[in-house]
Automatic annotation (TrEMBL), chain A:
Primary enzyme class: transferase
Catalytic activities: RX + glutathione = an S-substituted glutathione + a halide anion + H(+)
The protein's name in its UniProt record: glutathione transferase
Superkingdom field: Eukaryota
Predominant place of localization: cytoplasm
TrEMBL record, chain B:
Principal location class: cytoplasm
Recorded family membership: Belongs to the GST superfamily. Phi family.
Enzyme kind, highest EC tier: transferase
Domain GST C-terminal: 90-214
Any GO CC annotation of this UniProt entry: cytosol
GO biological process, alphabetically ordered: glutathione metabolic process; toxin catabolic process
UniProt subcellular location: Cytoplasm, Cytosol
Residue span(s) of domain GST N-terminal: 2-83
Name of the featured protein: glutathione transferase
């Protein structure tokens, strides 16, 4: 059996959970290696060698070392194309083009405002940091405009890139999970009919339920 | 062969990114100007091509795409045998290039894009530059470029041994920033500086700039 791939970082990190979702969809065995961010482990020289920006996740597979969650997902989906969910990254160039389009839309239009809201509403309170009401308001307005576009698209198409669940949908799971389950902004998704239907479908997948369970598991005790 | 069309403005960094790939590949295409001053990018006709109301939009026969980095990847794969090779056939090398493509999109561009707006576009729109914002953005971009300096001391190009999409995606914002006070950020880092000189000197890039003058 193949050696498990390694993912460095805590499952509560949105970017780490994006990679975990992909690995689970593709039935790829992985080893989750803790990085103690509260102690600044991610900014120490040993970690910076594998991720020079000092962020999680980082990834290793045999002899290759990668970072940036969406690059890791693309690599995993290509390398393990013939196992697990075979439609995750498309089976022909036209499908792939559509997936890339919506994956970029996630990264460029959905992620900035939703990430800002996740930080302000879910993480800042835990970290005892002051919330920035201006950022919250601006981010909510931007996110609303993006979700209006999604509402229209998801009325024409079952999933973002087409009829099948793909990486483009998967990439939205981490931020949306926090917004829906931990903040009062979940209504932005559930009150829009098509977006609500889509969220229900994609978050109900076995792979995502496993990621959420990993996020809820108690963190490993330090040695 | 179907007609390739790019809808956008020759001054838009995202549209320039797509046009750069088309010139590198030596592909014939039609550039359809979108009058952004008149709000044409928010018209129903354009929203049918890009529901986010942003340029560029792209057509290859019946295929319609938006998001410049999805378009460049499509072109680079679909027309792999034409002109400059912009992706790697080897999957491990492509994975490394993919990492640095994400770095451009998520680490570099958020700061570089905003700096372009402060230092170049605001003047065009009759707005005033915010010096505090500029200082903040230059600091953040500087930290990213420190990582680039280390990377480029070990690798000729960001994505690997050869020029590819990971490098090309930087050209539009680089072009604008080099004409502003932010140029110092690139000049002060020797490997970054050499890389910038190399990639901005490419003949295909000169054609993209020439479009702005016609």
């Amino acid at each position: 059996m193949a050696t498990p791939v390694k993912v460095y970082g805590p499952p509560m990190s949105t970017a780490v959970s994006r990679v975990l979702a992909c690995l689970l969809e593709k039935d790829v065995n992985f080893q989750l290696i803790p990085v103690d961010m509260s102690k600044g482990e991610h900014k120490k020289p040993d970690y910076l060698k594998i991720q020079p920006f000092g962020q999680v996740p980082s990834f290793q597979d045999e002899s290759i070392s990668l970072f940036e969650s969406r690059a890791i997902c693309r690599y995993v989906s290509e390398k393990y194309a013939n196992q697990g969910n075979k439609r995750l990254y498309g089976t022909n160039p036209l499908e792939k083009a559509s997936i890339e389009q919506w994956l970029e839309a996630e990264g460029q239009s959905f992620n900035p405002p939703s990430s800002a809201l996740v930080f302000q509403l879910a993480f800042a309170p835990r970290m005892k940091l002051k919330q920035d009401l201006g950022v919250i308001k601006q981010s909510e307005e931007k996110l609303a405009k993006v979700l209006d576009v999604y509402e229209q698209r998801l009325g024409e198409s079952r999933f973002l890139a087409g009829d099948e669940f793909t990486l483009a949908d998967l990439s939205h799971l981490p931020n949306t999970q926090y917004l829906v389950s931990v903040t009062e902004k979940g209504e932005m998704f559930t009150k829009r009919k098509n977006v609500g239907r889509w969220w229900s479908e994609i978050s109900g997948r076995d792979s995502w339920k496993k990621v959420v369970a990993l996020q809820k598991a108690p963190p490993p005790k330090s040695a | 062969m179907a007609v390739l069309k790019v809808h956008g403005s020759p001054f838009s960094t995202a549209a320039m990114r797509v046009v750069a790939v088309l010139y590198e590949k030596g592909l014939e295409f039609e550039f359809v100007p979108i009058d952004m001053k008149a709000g044409e990018h928010k018209s129903e006709a354009f929203l049918a091509l890009n529901p986010f109301g942003q340029v560029p939009a792209f057509e290859d026969g019946d295929l319609k795409l938006f998001e410049s980095r999805a378009i460049t990847q499509y072109i680079a794969h679909e027309y792999a045998s034409k002109g400059t090779q912009l992706i790697c056939p080897d999957s491990k090398k492509m994975a490394i290039m993919s990492v640095w493509m994400e770095v451009e999109a998520h680490q570099y561009d958020p700061h570089a894009g905003k700096l372009c707006f402060e230092l170049f576009f605001k003047a065009k729109f009759g707005m005033t530059t915010d010096p505090a914002a500029v200082e903040d953005l230059e600091g953040k971009l500087g930290k990213v470029l420190d990582v680039y300096e280390a990377r480029l001391s070990q690798s000729k190009y960001l994505g690997g041994d050869c020029f590819g999409l990971a490098d090309l995606h930087h050209l539009p914002t680089l072009h604008y920033l080099l004409g502003t006070s932010a140029k110092k950020l690139f000049d002060s880092r020797p490997h970054v500086s050499a890389w910038v000189v190399d990639i901005t000197a490419r003949p295909a890039w000169a054609k993209v700039i020439a479009m702005q003058k016609s």
